[in-house]
Structures are given as structure tokens and as C-alpha cells.
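Project outcomes to date are best conveyed with an example. Our students and postdoctoral researchers have been running inverse folding experiments weekly, and each run begins with a structure described purely in C-alpha cells. The record below, which covers 462 residues, was selected by the lab manager from last quarter's runs and is presented without edits.
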């Protein structure tokens, strides 16, 4: 994950009738768009009650749009584009602005909102993509294949095949390849959420907010089971003592012993999240530059990387994957929460109803998250704790409601055109920038000496 830790792309799929287009968004994302052959009983659920007749939204034309024309929900792309921009900013600015870097352990910084924002918007988009599912088996097959493609792409991009800008190595030792990562986590969350939307929908009519709870009660039950399972494993799993080896200068191998023998611990060295990853994935397949290396316990320059203090704990150099197995369980919950926000778009046509049904749960989740953090269940991105899940999902809901109000309600699209474009090409941007493809390409062309490349001429340096 490197500097791109916790930065993600969005993945969703429009399964039915071959509808939609691929805007190049994260993870092969497809979003329902205009259907040229809408049935007479189809209504515009994505454009609000005005049917898109706002002159601002129609480029200044005062003539109303056709009643049955379906319009793309622009706020989805804008939200995702803002998240992509935030991802780029925290990657570049995090090294010298602590508030823009990932929190070394407990606590939340700006960078820690990027991954949940992408997962949230995946869920929102899935509710639109699966509004109609004529063939559940076919939709399931396509969802599984897309998740596998995204997972494999993550293995290639984050398994070590693409090197860093100053690390011109090639190839991957399969004995040490990183198995989990950003795109792999999104693939898992996408698949489970898509299956819930395909198979676990009720038939009840939706007139009020509480009707959503009844119609999608089985999805909410799945989310509750997932969250409870995570909590039981995190606080109930016994973590024994363990040891690991690292290669020091001159390829000298050093062994470290970490004393634990505890249950329910959430410290960097003795938590159940890391233990499960070490047991199931193997420590050699985990991320080698853990975020807690910047903590006060492990760095004299904290919150930046630095030399180890003389009394540094033995776990400071141990690998830890921030996109591991158990922490990815809670990522599913974030995606499921986004799915419920998408249901509001599907079932409510009035802007006021949509916004109110977003604001109430968003504020509720934020209040609950702050209360949990106050009583000791701290927000923690590497562990993806429940309080962190609620805080980031609540913030995503508020931000999405604000963007929807600005862009889709009042039609102020011109100020957000750049964000809209970035959101529609999120996967391409992620691969080119966050995975170092573009910087490496630029470094590959120089004048006489490698240091005389394009980056040097524009003032960034070699």
C-alpha cells in the first residue's frame, strides 16, 4: 500500500440488460444510465421529482425534459472524484503534513477517510445498478467474475510487480507476494454487497424511511452479523506470543520475540487482526512497512518515520497488513451502509425526502462513533474498528448529501466538472498515479543523464 495506504478505488456493476457504460471508474465500475427503451411504466428515480427540468441542469434551456428521460446521478461521480483528489493529496502531502498522513494507530486523520469513502460509494452505486434483476443467477455470475477480476488486478498492482520510483527491480517472488491490498478489499466488499442486493430484497412498498428497514431487513441483519462477528473475534480471540525475522544491513537476519498472551488487546503488537493474518496468510505475505512504525513507540520523529528509539518494542519492525482479512470484514459493513443510502435514491423521488433520509442516519452514526471512542472503543483505521466504521460512514453520508444538494438539486455542475471527470476515470487515475505507473514512465525518459527527466524540468526533482 505504501503512501497509498487506505486509498482505494470504487467497484460496482450494472448487471441487468447490458445497461450503462464503463466510465473507467475504479474497479470496472458501471452505473445505470439512460435506457433508450424505457417501458411506459418506468419513472425517473435518479433525477428527482422535477424530471431534470432545472434550467441550470439543462445548460440554461427553460424547456422541460421528456418525462421519461433518465439522467445520470452526477453527485456519484463528483463524490468519487473528490475522493480520488484527496487520495492524491494525502499521498504527496502526507510526508510533511501529519494531518494529511494516516494515523500511526488510534485516531483518525484526513487520509483515513479515503478508503471508507470509496467503499461507501460502491454501495450507493450498487443500489442503482441492481434496481432491476431479471435473472439473479446471471447477475450473481457476473458479480463474481467482476470481483475476481478486481482481486487479480490488485494482486498485480499491489503484490510487488510494479516497483517504486527509486526501486528499479522487476518480478515478484511468489513466496513473498502481498496477498491482500486496496483493490482486493474492495473486491471482497463489492461481492458480498452485490450478493445481498441480488438475493436479499423484500417486496414491501416503501413510503417512509422506516419502510426501508422492513424491505431490506435481511441486508441489515447480514450487516449486524458481520459486525458482531468482527467484534467477537477482535475482543475474544486469544493472541499468543509470537516471533518473526527481518533482514538487516548486509542481509543479516534478525529474530524478534513479541510477548503477548492476551485477549482483546488492540495494541499494534498483540491484536487479533494481525494474528489472524499471520496465521492464515503468512507473515511473509503481509505489508512490510506498517503504519505503526511512525508511532512514538517506534520512531523518534513521530508522527513521521525515523530511527527506532532505544527502548522500541520488539514489534516495531513486524509486517502488518492494513487491508488484512479481519479488518476487511468491517469494510463490508461500510459498503452495506452505502447500499442503504442508495436505496433512498431508488425509492424516494423528492429531494427533501432523500436528503432527510441521509442526514438522520449520518448524524446518528457520528454521535454513536464519538460515544464509542469516548468509552474506549477507539477509532482505528488499521484495525477498521466499529467506531471508525460508523464515523467514516456517517461523514461520507453527510458529504454525499451536501454534494447531491449542490450538484443534482441546484445544478451547480460547472465548479465540479474536474471532480466529475476524475470520478468517471478513477481506476485509471489510481493505476497511473497511486501505483507509480505514471511517475515511472516519466522517469524513463531523460536528456543525457537520468536525473535530467521531465520531473526535474517542472521543478519536482528526479
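After processing, the design step wrote out the following sequence:
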Amino acid at each position: 500500500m505504501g503512501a497509498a495506504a487506505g486509498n482505494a478505488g470504487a467497484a460496482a456493476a450494472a448487471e441487468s440488460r447490458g445497461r450503462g457504460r464503463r466510465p473507467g471508474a475504479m474497479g470496472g465500475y458501471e452505473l445505470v444510465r439512460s435506457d433508450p427503451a424505457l417501458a411506459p411504466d418506468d419513472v425517473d428515480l435518479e433525477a428527482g421529482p422535477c424530471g431534470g427540468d432545472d434550467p441550470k441542469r439543462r445548460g440554461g434551456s427553460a424547456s422541460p425534459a421528456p418525462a421519461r428521460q433518465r439522467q445520470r446521478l452526477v453527485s456519484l461521480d463528483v463524490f468519487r472524484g473528490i475522493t480520488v483528489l484527496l487520495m492524491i493529496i494525502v499521498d504527496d502531502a502526507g510526508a510533511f503534513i501529519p494531518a494529511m498522513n494516516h494515523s500511526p494507530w488510534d485516531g483518525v486523520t484526513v487520509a483515513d477517510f479515503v478508503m471508507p469513502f470509496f467503499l461507501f460509494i460502491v454501495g450507493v452505486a450498487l443500489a442503482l445498478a441492481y434496481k432491476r434483476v431479471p435473472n439473479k443467477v446471471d447477475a450473481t455470475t457476473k458479480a463474481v467474475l467482476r470481483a475476481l477480476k478486481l482481486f487479480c488486478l490488485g494482486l498485480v498492482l499491489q503484490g510487488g510487480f510494479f516497483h517504486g520510483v527509486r526501486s528499479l527491480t522487476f518480478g515478484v517472488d511468489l513466496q513473498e507476494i502481498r496477498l491482500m491490498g486496496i483493490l482486493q478489499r474492495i473486491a471482497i466488499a463489492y461481492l458480498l454487497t452485490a450478493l445481498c442486493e441480488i438475493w436479499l430484497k423484500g417486496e414491501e412498498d416503501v413510503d417512509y424511511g422506516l419502510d426501508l428497514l422492513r424491505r431490506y431487513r435481511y441486508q441489515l441483519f447480514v450487516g449486524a452479523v458481520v459486525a458482531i462477528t468482527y467484534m467477537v473475534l477482535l475482543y475474544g480471540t486469544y493472541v499468543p506470543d509470537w516471533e518473526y525475522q527481518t533482514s538487516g544491513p548486509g542481509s543479516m537476519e534478525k529474530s524478534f520475540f513479541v510477548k503477548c498472551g492476551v485477549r482483546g488487546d488492540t495494541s499494534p503488537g498483540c491484536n487479533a487482526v494481525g494474528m489472524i493474518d499471520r496465521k492464515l496468510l503468512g507473515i511473509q505475505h503481509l505489508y512490510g512497512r506498517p503504519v505503526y512504525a511512525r508511532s512514538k513507540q517506534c520512531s523518534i520523529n513521530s508522527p513521521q518515520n525515523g530511527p527506532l528509539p532505544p527502548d522500541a518494542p520488539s514489534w516495531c519492525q513486524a509486517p502488518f497488513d492494513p487491508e488484512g482479512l479481519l479488518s476487511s470484514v468491517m469494510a463490508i459493513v461500510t459498503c452495506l451502509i452505502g447500499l442503504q443510502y442508495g436505496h433512498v435514491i431508488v425509492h424516494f423521488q423528492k429531494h427533501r425526502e432523500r436528503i432527510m433520509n441521509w442526514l438522520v442516519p449520518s448524524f446518528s452514526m457520528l454521535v454513536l462513533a464519538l460515544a464509542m471512542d469516548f468509552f474506549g472503543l477507539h477509532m482505528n483505521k488499521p484495525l477498521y474498528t466499529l467506531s471508525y466504521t460508523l464515523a467514516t460512514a456517517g461523514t461520507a453520508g453527510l458529504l454525499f448529501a451536501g454534494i447531491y444538494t449542490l450538484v443534482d438539486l441546484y445544478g451547480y455542475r460547472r465548479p465540479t466538472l474536474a471532480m466529475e471527470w476524475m470520478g468517471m476515470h478513477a481506476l485509471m487515475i489510481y493505476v497511473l498515479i497511486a501505483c507509480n505507473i505514471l511517475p515511472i514512465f516519466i522517469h524513463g525518459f531523460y536528456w543525457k543523464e537520468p536525473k535530467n527527466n521531465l520531473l526535474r524540468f517542472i521543478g519536482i526533482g528526479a
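Confidence is low (pLDDT under 50) at residues 1-69. The longest strand covers residues 242-247. The training component of this project remains on track.
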